[in-house]
Each structure stands twice: as C-alpha cells, then as structure tokens.
Amino acid sequence: MIETITPPSTPVGGGAFTVVSARHPWRWAAGIMLTAIMGLLVFSAVTNPRFGWDKVARYFRDVTVVNGIEVTLFLTVICMAVGVALGVVLAVMQLSPNPVASAFAGGYVTIFRGTPVLVQLLFWFNLAALYPEITFGIPGVSLDANQLITPMTAAILGLGLNEAAYMSEIVRAGIQSVDQGQTEAAGALGMPRLLTLSRVVLPQAMRVIIPPTGNEFIGMLKTTSLVSVLAVPDLLYSAQIIYSKNLQVIPLLVVASIWYIVVTTVFTVGQGYLERRFSRGTTRSAPPTAWGRLRAFFRVHSPLATRKGTNDER
Amino acid sequence: MSVETNADTMPLVRAEGVRKSFGPLEVLKGIDLEVERGEVVCLIGASGSGKSTFLRCVNHLEKIDGGLIRIADRVVGYHLKGDKLYEQSHNEVCAARTDIGMVFQHFNLFPHMTALENLMEAPLRVLKQPRKTVEARALKLLEQVGLAGKAKSYPRHLSGGQQQRVAIARALCMEPKLMLFDEPTSALDPELVGEVLRVMKDLARTGMTMIVVTHEMGFARDVADRVVFMHDGRILEEGPAESVITNPRHERTRAFLSAVL
Ligand SMILES: Nc1ncnc2c1ncn2[C@@H]1O[C@H](COP(=O)(O)OP(=O)(O)OP(=O)(O)O)[C@@H](O)[C@H]1O
Ligand SMILES: [Mg+2]
Prior knowledge:
The complex is a heterodimer.
Chain A: H1 25-47, H2 53-60, H3 63-95, H4 99-114, H5 117-125, H6 127-130, E1 133-134, E2 143-144, H7 145-148, H8 151-177, H9 180-188, H10 193-223, H11 235-246, H12 249-278, H13 290-298, H14 303-310
Antiparallel strand pairs in A: 1-2
Chain B: H1 2-9, E1 13-22, E2 25-35, E3 40-45, H2 51-58, E4 66-71, E5 74-75, E6 78-81, E7 84-87, H3 90-97, E8 100-103, H4 115-125, H5 131-144, H6 160-172, E9 178-182, H7 190-205, E10 209-213, H8 217-223, E11 226-231, E12 234-240, H9 241-246, H10 251-260
Parallel strand pairs in B: 3-10, 3-11, 8-9, 9-10
Antiparallel strand pairs in B: 1-2, 1-4, 4-5, 6-7, 11-12
Helix pairs in contact in B: 4-5, 4-6, 5-6, 6-7
Bound molecules: adenosine-5'-triphosphate and magnesium ion.
C-alpha cells in the first residue's frame, strides 16, 4: 500500500523523481470514526432542549458574565505574576549555597504544595481570626486584618502564594537544566552570580520553564473558579449569581464553560508562539505551530516542500 | 614609581606550594610555578594529573587549600595585609577575574547570543564600558580570529573550530593580562585543530602571557617558551620546550611523551 520512493537527499526540484507521500490508511480510518462520534455528540447536545441553547445565547454576553470574565482574567494574571516572581526567588534560594535559605525555600514548598488550595484560600480569608491586628512586628504599624483581607486580597494571597510553590519547582528544574559550563564561563568573565543568573542562565532555562508555566497559567485560569467560595465575583460566581435568581443552572454553566474554553484556547495558541520564540538559539528547527501540523496532516505531495515552511532559520 | 618598575619586572604569575583536595583526594600536592610577562607556558601531563584544577585555581574558580597564588602584585582570592590573608568577597573575586581570560575545552559560548553579543556581554555589563568602544573592539577581534563575517551568527551555526575562535575572542575582549587555555583543541575534529592553534600562535606573538594545557606537542614545541610536565599533582619536570620534549630527563615524562607523540 505504501508507494513512497525514499526521498533523495538532493532537493527534489531539480531531480528526476516526483515524491509521493505515504497514504496512511489507518490514520484516515481512525479520523473518520472519531469524526462520526463527534457528530453524534454534537447532534445530541443540539437536539436536547434541556441544554437551553436559546438561554445560553441570551446570557453569553450578559454584563454580569462579562464582568466575571474580567475578574477571572485579572486574578489569573495577578496570581501568576505573584507566583512567577516569588517562584524565581524561591528557586534561587533553594539552589543557593546558604543552607538556611535553601531550607526555608524547601519548607515553603512543602507547606504550600502539601495543602489543598481551597484550604489555603479559606485560611487567608479567615486571617483576622488568627491575627486580628497585623503589625509586621514593627512598632507603630497596626493594620486591621478585617479591612486588609478583603475577599479579593485573600484570593490573590491564596492563589499567588500557592502558585509560587509550584513555580519554584519549575524554575529550579529550568536552572538545573542549563549546562554547568555556562556558569563557569560567565564566572571566568568576571560576571557576578546575579548577573550570570539573569543574563546567562535564566534565558537558557526559559526553554524548559515556559511550557510548564503555560500549563500553570491555564491551570490557574480554571483554579480561580475556587474563589467563588469567597464570593469574589469571577466568571463562575457571576454565573451562579444569575442562576440563583432565574434557576437556569445548566445554560449558565454552559455559558461559563464556553468562556473558559475560549480564553484557554487563546492562551494555548499564545503559549505555542512563546515556546517557538524561546527555542531560538537552542534547536535547529522550532516545533511546528498547530496550524502547521494540521496542514502537514492533509498534505498529499512533496513533504520536502512543506517542511521548508516550518523551518525557522534565523 | 620604584614600586611600579618592580611590579613590571616581577613574574606575572607566582604559585607557591599550591595544594588542593577534593574530599579525601589530594589533586594538587604543592605546585610551585612562575610565569613571566609575555611568556607562553604549556602544561602537559596525563589525564587526572591536576592540570585543569591548577588552571582553575589561578582564576579562583576553585579555592585552594594551601599555598598562595599571586598575579602581578595581588594574591588570588585574598587581600594580603601585614601577615594576614583576608578572604575576598564574591564581587572582589569577580573583579579580579576580569584581568584573566579563560578558554575551555567545550567552548562554553552563550548559545542564546550571537558571536558579537558573546564578545560584548562582559565588557558592557561587568566593565561597564561604552557600547561603541566595545562593539568596535569586538568586531576587530572577530576579524583577527578570521570570523569577520560571523558576527551575527549564533554559536550553533558555527563549526567547533569557529566556536573556539569566538571563545578566544570573547576572552580577549576583556583585555586580559593573562590567558588560560584548558585543552582548547581536544574537543575538535582533527581538521579544525589547526585554525585554533594558528589563532593562539598569533596571540602568543603579540606578547600575551599564556598558560596552555594541551596535548598538542607540535604547538608546545613551536610556541611555548617553557613546558611544564605534571604528574599526580606535582610538577615533575620543566624547562625550555625543545629540551623537555626531545630530551626529557625524567622517566615518567619520557613515558608520557612517547604515548602522545
Ligand atoms: N569538582 C571535582 N570534584 C571532585 N573531584 C574532582 C573535581 N574536579 C577534578 N577532580 C578530580 O581531580 C583529579 C584531577 O583532575 P583534573 O581535571 O585537574 O585533571 P587533568 O589533568 O585536567 O586531566 P584531563 O587531562 O583529563 O583533563 C581527577 O582525579 C578528577 O577526578
Ligand atoms: Mg583537564
């Protein structure tokens, strides 16, 4: 069934051969079957009146929902920023020659990864019960915890500090993936530790850090829905506000889900481009984009010609 | 002024009784070595004899456990005040290293920077020199090592020989007083060795002080003023290149040379 001629190593353009790609019959069979299953699922969803598609359409761009998306995005970005910044600091501490610093960072990771985020959120929310007055140990400073810890600050603290624990592990793995010779070469040039970290090690660690960070970002987007227990009006809580009044539970959950999918998809595409950007200088050809892969699947002729498009030589 | 003339006639590098251990393993067992200004010294010796370790001690990439290394009028890693040695801070150690260039076996170029950026990084950010000056100097150095057209290339697009020449230019861009080479051609395909040795030979001719760990006896014979044979953490034999290589006094030197020649 496979009728390929091994592609000659010289470019096809000038040669005597036409290259015909392998046909992959099983790929096509599996593709057709999965398409059929998808079709059935969509059919059942569309024809089941209890999904309430008309109501989904009505509430899709409801003011409350849109405000909820804004809160969700805001929380995601802020908490990830806190997580990444603190995560880098914790990773550096963990790798530092100072045993106290590395023990501190290790303890932090153990505590914040070892307890559920939901529990941490509730802890921060109820901080006032633990420390009614926050003084930071500085005489003259006294803040009322009840005023300081709004649901929003509790959400940011809870999600951000938890994320930092995960990010520190990711950053640490990234830093450790960089060849020891790089640090040595920088040291021999007289570059101090921090400069070496920021100019030599971290840029190279990015290749290892970015993909899981993208996943963390997308995970965070969905984890923010936990803050609905603190009555922070995020996307999920906004949907809940509406359905607690009109009792259209399923249509509003569908609305929220569709929005989560839309935002997640946008982030995923962005993540792919970021990864390509940071693989510069480390691999000869960057991984193909989603679009490039789809095109490659449907190509019939001349794989050599198509491959040219994904080679990013600069 | 008399102090300065004194400093100028003093050896650039003076190692006295340098000792270094890794845990229970004593790698350097008392190294005494002087290198004059403008002198090229080749360190030879079997694998594991401590050549790399000694080189790394000279710019304080390794801390020594005993003895003293002086470069010009300073002690490596310490301040000498009266009869006390005060350990230098991390920043002081870094500042001292800017006078010493080092070239590694595996090049260790920064892969996310172009050749030109590799050269300019440390002069810009460590020495804080103006960009214009640094760029002009970097381009001139790339030309000197025969890579004028490769300024914008990333290391992965360069051959091993070209990468090592960039690495030499990178070290020179700091305008060091002393250059250390740790087996600069050992990771190269045989046909690429020549181009790197040529660059080093040119550098020696400009009067640069160089300590070169190498197995290239041809280079040692042609370029080195002195050859030092290390064995098991000690210097067994040293002398003019020609006499050590063709007429070694020590049995072990003879065995080593017959193995590599
Ligand atoms: N960081 C280290 N930790 C422990 N042992 C080390 C370390 N660096 C070097 N050694 C040991 O010290 C000894 C001398 O090593 P060194 O690299 O100086 O030898 P060398 O003469 O450069 O040999 P080669 O020709 O293989 O490069 C070796 O036995 C090596 O295993
Ligand atoms: Mg070595």
